[in-house]
From TrEMBL:
GO MF entries: monooxygenase activity
Protein's name according to its UniProt entry: Antibiotic biosynthesis monooxygenase
UniProt xrefs under Pfam families: ABM (PF03992)
InterPro entries (UniProt xref): ABM_dom, Dimeric_a/b-barrel
Keyword match Oxidoreductase: yes
Domain ABM per the UniProt entry, residue ranges: 3-89
Keyword line: Monooxygenase, Oxidoreductase
Source organism (scientific name): Cryobacterium algoricola
Length: 103
């Protein structure tokens, strides 16, 4: 079963676009990582949320320790208010298989 990750990033006031730009740089690299099934950025006026899906916990661990994350952390270091809140979640499919689960 896939591993779902929700990472919430809090940019400093006026730095939201800097954080989005950093993700734009690293996202193609993450998409090419083994086991990556989804790496999709979302935002509102003051928060950035990354929704991820990995084929296995080992793939997620390799991603977390990999070059793309090292680069991302360096790119956003001066633009965020602190560490990201990262939650690793278990998928609980409900109802319609296409609508009740992150595919």
């Amino acid at each position: 079963m896939s591993v779902i990750v929700v990472a919430t990033i809090s940019p400093l006031d006026g730095h939201l676009q800097n954080v989005v730009d950093a993700f734009a740089i690293v996202s193609p690299k993450v998409h090419a990582e083994p086991g990556n099934e989804l790496y999709a950025l979302h935002r509102d006026a003051g928060t950035v949320v990354m929704i991820e899906r990995w084929a296995s916990p080992a793939d997620l661990a390799a991603h977390a320790a990999g070059a793309a994350m090292t680069e991302l952390n360096a790119l956003v270091a001066e633009h965020v208010s602190g560490p990201s809140e990262v939650r690793v979640l278990e998928n609980v499919p409900l109802g319609d298989p296409l609508k009740g689960s992150i595919q």
